[in-house]
């Protein structure tokens, strides 16, 4: 389960709408808790999508990723995971998302703008090469 404040969920949704029809992306920072349980997102860091196909995929520039991770860690938080939007897709990981997943045990939140706004969260399992859906608790 991942715990996210409603204000932070709204921040991700606003970011997704602002970038539409491109995918928006960012980093989730917070407290990881014991063995990945009780993850709490404390802050959302918007990033620039530098992918060459920004309508169907996202890439955070390596330099931006490094300095944002540095900022997160120096503020006493951890990287919990990432979020991105699907302006024209469902709230589950795409084939591209699966092929590019690189952070085992981390959460990948997806904001779908297709029809109604929906959010979901997925944990990358390196062993099976699959995303496993996790519950989001909005507080
Ligand atoms: Zn995606």
Which small compounds were modeled alongside the protein? Answer: zinc ion
Oligomer: single chain
Q: How much helix, percentage-wise, in residues?
A: 10-25%
Strand content: 35-45%
Gyration radius, rounded: 14 Å
End-to-end separation: 13 Å
Biggest sheet strand order reads 7-6-5-4-2-3-1-8
State the helix count: 3
* CATH 2nd-level architecture: 3-Layer(aba) Sandwich
Q: How many DSSP E strands?
A: 8
Largest sheet: 8 strands, mixed
CATH level 1 class label = Alpha Beta
Order of SSEs? EHEEHEHEEEE
Architecture overview:
- The protein is α/β, with parallel strands linked by helices and 139 residues long.
- The chain has one domain (2-81, 93-138): Cytidine Deaminase, domain 2 (3-Layer(aba) Sandwich), CATH 3.40.140.10.
- The chain has helices spanning 6-19, 62-74, 95-100; strands spanning 2-4, 25-31, 39-47, 78-86, 107-112, 118-125, 130-134, 136-138.
- 33% of the residues are buried.
- Zinc ion binds next to strand 4.
Write a brief structural summary.
This protein has 139 residues and is of the alpha/beta class. Helices cover 24% and strands 36% of the residues. The longest helix has 14 residues, at 6-19.
């Amino acid at each position: 389960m991942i715990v996210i404040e409603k204000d932070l969920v709204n921040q991700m949704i606003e970011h997704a709408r602002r970038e539409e029809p491109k995918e928006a992306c960012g980093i989730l920072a917070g407290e990881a808790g014991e063995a990945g349980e009780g993850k709490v997102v404390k802050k959302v860091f918007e990033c620039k999508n530098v992918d060459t196909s920004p309508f169907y995929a996202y890439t955070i520039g390596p330099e931006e990723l490094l300095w944002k991770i540095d900022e997160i860690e120096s503020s006493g938080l951890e990287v919990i995971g990432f979020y991105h939007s699907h302006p024209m897709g469902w709230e589950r990981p795409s084939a591209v998302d699966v092929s590019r997943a690189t952070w085992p045990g981390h959460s990948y939140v997806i904001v779908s703008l297709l029809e109604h706004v929906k959010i979901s969260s997925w944990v990358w399992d390196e062993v099976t090469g699959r995303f496993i859906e996790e519950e989001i608790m909005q507080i």
